[in-house]
Amino acid sequence: MVMEASTQPGHDLISFINSSPTPYHAVDSIKHQLTRAAFEEIRERDAWGSTCKPGGKYYLTRNTSTILAFAIGKKWQAGNPIAMVGAHTDSPTLRVKPISKKQGDGFIQVGVETYGGGLWHTWFDRDLSTAGRVMVRNIEGRFVQKLVKIDRPILRIPTLAVHLDRQETFSFNKESQLFPIAGLVAAELNRQAKEEGIRPTRPDSPWATGGNFDKATPESEDTPFSPLKAPTERHHSRFVELIAREAGVKASDVVDFEMVLYDTQKSCTGGLNDELLFSARLDNLEMSYCSAMALVNSVASQSSLENESAIRLISLFDHEEIGSNTAQGADSNFLPTVLRRLSVLGLGDKQPNNTYYEQSLASSFLISADMAHSINPNYSGKYEPDHKPEMNKGTVIKINANARYATNSPGIVLIQEAARRAKVPLQLFVVRNDSSCGSTIGPMLSAALGTRTLDLGNAQLSMHSIRETGGLYDVDYAIKLFESFFEHYSELEARILID
């Protein structure tokens, strides 16, 4: 009998996504979840030999946009298996350019560049704001990171009225027609005038529709040398002021920032019976959240690690949407170096066996968790007739003969046994032979590590849109599936031997 799914995990996911407009915010939220579950923070630059002990729970970050967490079984020995779930924290978005100050025809505009393969037409006519991380100079002269999320609409990318261009297919230039407007030049001039005690500019003044209203600070002999122009010169000063206010600092203390745009409309449930999720960034914050909560749940009891001989691990990477080939991406040395260090834990002063790392990888397993495609009833012909995943029918195993996904039969046997113990349903998906297929972190990590790997994810519609759709009940199914995988992997690994 299939387990009856709870709606609460889906509502918790909504809260997580609403508070996580960027990978930095997502990692920060997951850190709080792990800390509440008594996970201890460690750092790559430190030695772990005297810190990481059997029965312990730990996490570390890289670039504050990638996070890895693990729990060590009390019966762990060097070279034992590691049960892993990998996902990613990033989503397609628009990123503020290093020099973003633009204006035209009386409008203030902000220059942006595309990140990932988004459905960019869905970003038009949405109430947008900005979020990200800001590097600021504190009173001690140190440079520190602050997370920023402006919670009100300040930006919008306007479409052209149908009366002016009756396009049969909506098309636009991403470099010249995807810039958001941030207000009117006249309004900003009037605001500045009021602050300076000057008579406000009339809307019909020539200064209201042209000229550079952001005043550059004149340099003097006492002005410190700066290799780059200040943020208030590279960006609209008001834009920087709003960011600084959210960071709790003065605009002059802002040294640089990485800001992206996000839709201010909150994630919510939808459908006639509230069975759906209407949300941004389901791909792939949903799988990141499900894997993190599964790890936390699997070690919630005092005895959960007593008889465990493996390590339970999640690794949530940034930059999957742009190929993962960065220091904090899945194609970096982050996971391999952590696994190498974990594989020899417990040896103390003993001389490490040169094969402990390889032994551990050979007996480990990685679930690559990335959202999957639900059947779209308006485009049913785009799907392979016998493989049409549905929302709220369980997590989808993704298979591709050309290794765009890393799934194979032994992996399906293992995940099916984990699902059987959790009493959660599973589905199968392949793309049509005449259709292209996306890929995940699964193939690159399985090739780099030689570890058995399986690709799966919950079904969703409108992948890479600014507003996606998923199933409310699938959230609970995925958490239960990953939790069962962590709890039963040591037993299952010994029963499924394929070398």
- Tell me the CATH architecture of the largest domain: 3-Layer(aba) Sandwich
Oligomer, anyone? single chain
Q: Please give the share of residues in helix.
A: 25-40%
Radius of gyration: 25 Å
Q: Count of DSSP helices?
A: 11
Question: Biggest sheet, strands in spatial order?
Answer: 1-2-3-13-4-14-18-16-17
Can you tell me the CATH class of the largest domain? Alpha Beta
Strand content: 15-25%
> What is the CATH topology classification name of the largest domain?
Aminopeptidase
Mean pLDDT: 93
Largest sheet, if any? 9 strands, mixed
Overall shape = globular
Number of strands: 20
Low-confidence stretches: none
CATH superfamily of the largest domain: Zn peptidases
What distance separates the N and C termini?
A: 33 Å
Name the structural class.
Answer: alpha/beta
Kindly give the count of domains.
2
Chart the SSEs and their pairings.
Blueprint: H1 8-18, H2 23-36, E1 40-41, E2 57-62, E3 66-72, E4 82-88, E5 93-104, E6 107-115, E7 128-137, E8 143-149, E9 181-184, H3 185-196, H4 231-234, H5 237-247, E10 254-263, E11 268-270, E12 276-279, H6 282-298, E13 311-317, H7 334-343, H8 356-363, E14 365-369, E15 372-373, E16 395-398, H9 409-422, E17 426-429, H10 441-449, E18 452-457, E19 459-461, E20 468-471, H11 472-493
Parallel strand pairs: 1-2, 4-13, 4-14, 14-18, 15-19, 16-17
Antiparallel strand pairs: 2-3, 3-13, 5-6, 6-9, 7-8, 7-10, 11-12, 12-20, 16-18, 19-20
Catalytic activity: Release of an N-terminal aspartate or glutamate from a peptide, with a preference for aspartate
Family: Belongs to the peptidase M18 family.
GO molecular function, one term: zinc ion binding
